[in-house]
Amino acid sequence: MNQILLLHGAIGSKDQLQPLKSLLENDFIVHSLNFGGHGGEAFGNDFSIQGFSVEVAEYIRQQDISPVHIFGYSMGGYVAAYLALKQPGLVKCVVTLATKFHWDESIAAKEIKMLDGDKIAEKLPAFAEQLAQRHAPNNWKAVLQKTGEMLLAMGIDNPLKETDYGKIETPVLVMLGDRDKMVSFDETVGVYQSLPNGSMAVLPASPHPFEQVDAGQLAYQIRHFISRISLMKEDF
To answer: How many other β-carbons are positioned within 10 Å of the β-carbon of residue 201?
Structure first.
């Protein structure tokens, strides 16, 4: 049976992907992990795309599942694409959803404003409590602060440059929700067109938050893509 690894987004946790995991378990052996500092996991030494990709590589080797299919939501998709570039032997294919590939200083500054822990606690107390429970025993505000620092660094120097996508030989499906207000259609198309073995899909009636995405529709796209690339490899 094929194995797939699910990667969550920034300030998220693997528990958020449980609905998708349940839908895939009849077709795959499904793995998931928390990035360092997320979901109660201890903070690692490198809270960055590069550091998270090292954590994923270590997990893949420890579980002896190389090469493995990877689905990444938002930041998780960026980590998966970075890993496919740097350590392609570990990755069988990549599927991303709602991944923001283009970062600059102005975009990073805009996103960082939404990570103000004090304002969230004041204006969105229910969300603050959700974050507190999600990341306990870690301080949820520390997770937001470190995420902001990471985004600032990405705005200054993207871990994945525009020219890097043309070097990713791994099959990649990039997906975007048609109502996503964080990730633009143009940047997603640009990455798709740069990938040597790229595919693209748009999910209807889908905004950015994972909880508002139709998990059944998403699971179908993942199954279909992996089935298609498996048939292509058999043809050769």
So the answer is: 18
